[in-house]
């Protein structure tokens, strides 16, 4: 089964956008471990919402707004393989432990035959 993990964090947390060398080393080690074990399909961090936009479709039409958005924002994502939801949650807990403050949302990917 595949799962999407998206991590949200406070956009005002400077360390989230400029990680320390120690954090980068720890994250790199986890990534190498997960790749080696066939867990990680892909993962990326994203820029602050200042470099983003939101597009909405309503009954009145399509609108877009440039960032920044403030508050908690998506800081990155990982696409993983897990045998079930429980394993995906356990992996997300390992991932979340790397951060000072973060929320990780897990969503199962639709598998089409």
Structure description:
The structure is a single chain. The protein has a four-stranded antiparallel beta sheet. With 113 residues, it is α+β, with helices and mostly antiparallel strands. It has three helices and six strands. It starts with a strand and ends in a 5-residue tail after the last strand.
What features would you highlight for this structure?
two-stranded antiparallel sheet, 6 strands, 113 residues
Mean pLDDT: 92
Overall strand count: 6
Strand content: 35-45%
Q: In percent, how helical is the residue content?
A: 25-40%
Order of helices and strands: EHHEEEEHE
Radius of gyration: 16 Å
Distance between the termini: 12 Å
Largest sheet: 4 strands, antiparallel
Count every helix, treating DSSP H or I runs of 4 or more residues as helices: 3
Largest beta sheet: strand ordering: 2-5-1-6
The low-confidence parts are none
Structural class: alpha+beta
Which outline best applies? Answer: globular
